Amino acid sequence: MPTDQEQYITELKYYLKTMPQKERDDATTYYMEYLKDGDLVNYKDIVENLGTPRQLARQITANYTISEDEKQPKKEGSVNHNVKLIVTILAAIASPALLGIAGFILLMLFIFVFTVGALLFAALFAAGLFIWLGVTTIFSKGIIALSILGLGLLILGVLLMIPPIVYFVVRFIIQIGANWIKKIYRYSQAKLNPRKDGYHG
């Protein structure tokens, strides 16, 4: 029958399954030695000292993800990368500050996407209307119809340029949010919730 220490480490290793094998083995080896050195043999005492295996795994994963992110060249990450980083950190520590920033980012993105979507729909409708009017009246209105048709095509051309701009803005907002959340997480770990074990992933 496994000891409480072995049971805790087995559960911890399971929750660290998203990490690379080497880092997962390093973490579980470290914590097994920590439990032995601290003479923590009772499961309840271990949880009181380190938190549940799931909680500890989330913190280790968050620290590892941030460390790997900071090793990369100083450039903007992809949207998927930054979203994954934000979700990982929020899963590790659901502090009011972090949740507030996450909520603010989501609200800003929703407002931005909704507003841009409404404007694009209105512009697309106007472009379609102008093109239709220009085509159907080109023989009776002459130069006026051509002007209306040209205006419709111009609006349509501008609309084709907007999606890349929208993507850039969304990416920028998520990048800023990821940077804020990383800084607040580091601060909360160092000041508000210091680790008892000294392990940083």
Description:
With 201 residues, this protein is mainly alpha-helical. The protein has two domains: 4-76; 96-192. It is built from eight helices and no strands. The chain is rod-shaped and about 95 Å long. The two termini are 29 Å apart. The model has no long low-confidence stretch (mean pLDDT 82).
The gyration radius over C-alpha positions equals: 27 Å
**How large is the share of residues in beta strands?**
under 5%
Mean pLDDT: 82
Largest sheet: none
Give me the count of strands. 0
Spell out the key features of this protein.
mainly alpha, 2 domains, 201 residues
Summarize the structure in short.
Helix content is 82%, strand content 0%. 20% of the residues are buried. The protein is rod-shaped and about 95 Å long.
Question: Strands, helices and their partners?
Answer:
Layout: H1 4-15, H2 21-37, H3 43-50, H4 53-71, H5 79-92, H6 96-136, H7 138-141, H8 143-192
Helix pairs in contact: 1-2, 1-4, 4-5, 5-8, 6-8
